[in-house]
């Protein structure tokens, strides 16, 4: 059980990222000093949003150049920190070389940060951004779980280099983290395992992310014939940031935390947008039949292979979020709030096209 001193700096890797930006905002508003480890601090446009937040907050931000694959490149940023948030990790589902583009940065990056912590005597706790992808690959995996519900005890056993390499990379990275944590007693490890993250971004360029690709397809006419009832979990980016914050500072926090607010599917996500946006945007109103997706899915989208469609469409996704509510006191935002505020960003940036 570690008590973290809030007068000491706190390190955040990948500080300009989607989740990390909201976490940095929270830390700065609480008056903390943030050591932001980023790939290129010289790129002012990448850090402008964090500078703007720092200007209006009690806290301070300092930038450090670091790279997931460069050994020891986090040492300077970590110096004097009791708490480390490791959020940096590649997130993409379209990759040329899964081993090089996903597995290595995820696993070696985690190893790099945790090995540096072993050489930094001040570090007491590491909060790692993992994913529900380290627990499951497809919605059908829920059926294999006891009671049909995913819990923190479950590990992903169905992803591989050939099938869902992103999920595989998250599983290997988190396993590596626990393996390293067990070999030492200086710091404790907590992992935050979010499902699909939605919500308004603070960082520029976030609308090109995977989360926003799904949102775009719900609003740009791609799915106007219907949305697949593809079972997923969903959580608001601001709740994920809060989960990291509380995991860092609540001494009793321990282990893994499923960070998912809603057991949902693409059609339900579309339907909650209907009242506010349905009149002006081509948001789907009905389910796309599974047989049709099996037929055209693989042609329309590389991810929608026949296996993927079979394992996820019309399959309920269920996870148990009782542990995070109890231990960290997280009160998740309603699905409608998250969906509407995310879609509004696409409207404001003229990414969603009115019909």
Automatic annotation (TrEMBL):
Which protein family is named in the record? Belongs to the NAD(P)-dependent epimerase/dehydratase family. Dihydroflavonol-4-reductase subfamily.
PANTHER family xref list: NAD DEPENDENT EPIMERASE/DEHYDRATASE, STEROL-4-ALPHA-CARBOXYLATE 3-DEHYDROGENASE, DECARBOXYLATING
Q: What is this protein called?
A: NAD-dependent epimerase/dehydratase family protein
Segments forming domain NAD-dependent epimerase/dehydratase:
10-247
The superkingdom listed in its UniProt entry is Bacteria
From the UniProt record, which GO molecular function terms apply? oxidoreductase activity, acting on the CH-OH group of donors, NAD or NADP as acceptor
Give the source species: Maribellus comscasis
Family matches, as Pfam families? Epimerase (PF01370)
Keywords on record: Oxidoreductase
């Amino acid at each position: 059980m570690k008590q973290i001193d809030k007068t000491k700096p706190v390190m955040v890797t990948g500080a300009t990222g989607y989740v990390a930006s909201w976490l940095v905002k929270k830390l700065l508003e609480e008056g903390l000093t943030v050591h932001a480890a980023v790939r290129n601090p010289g790129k002012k446009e990448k850090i402008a949003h964090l500078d703007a937040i720092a200007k209006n907050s009690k806290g301070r931000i300092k930038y450090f150049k670091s790279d997931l694959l460069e050994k020891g490149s986090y040492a300077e940023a970590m110096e004097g920190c009791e708490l480390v948030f490791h959020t940096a990790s590649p997130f993409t589902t379209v990759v040329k070389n899964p081993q090089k583009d996903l597995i290595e940065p995820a696993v070696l990056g985690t190893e790099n940060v945790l090995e540096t912590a072993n050489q930094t005597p001040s570090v007491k706790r590491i909060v790692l951004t993992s994913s529900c992808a380290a627990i499951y690959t497809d919605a059908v995996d829920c059926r294999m779980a006891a009671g049909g519900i995913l819990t923190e005890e479950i590990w992903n056993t169905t992803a591989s280099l050939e099938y869902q390499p992103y999920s595989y990379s998250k599983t290997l990275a988190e396993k590596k983290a626990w393996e390293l944590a067990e070999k030492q007693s200086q710091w404790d490890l907590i992992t935050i395992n979010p499902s699909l993250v939605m919500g308004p971004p603070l960082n520029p360029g976030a609308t090109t992310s995977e989360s926003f690709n799904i949102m775009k397809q719900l609003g740009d006419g791609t799915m106007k014939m219907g949305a697949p009832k593809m079972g997923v979990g969903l959580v608001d980016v601001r709740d994920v940031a809060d989960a990291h914050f509380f995991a860092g500072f609540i001494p009793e926090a321990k282990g893994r935390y499923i960070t998912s607010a809603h057991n949902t599917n693409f059609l339900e996500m579309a339907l909650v947008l209907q009242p506010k946006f349905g009149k002006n945007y081509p948001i789907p109103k009905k389910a796309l039949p599974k047989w049709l997706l099996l037929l055209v899915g693989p042609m329309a989208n590389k991810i929608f292979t026949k296996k993927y469609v079979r394992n996820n469409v019309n399959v309920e996704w269920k996870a148990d979020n009782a542990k995070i509510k109890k231990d960290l006191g997280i009160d998740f935002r309603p699905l409608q709030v998250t969906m509407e505020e995310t879609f509004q960003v696409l409207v404001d940036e003229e990414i969603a096209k009115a019909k």
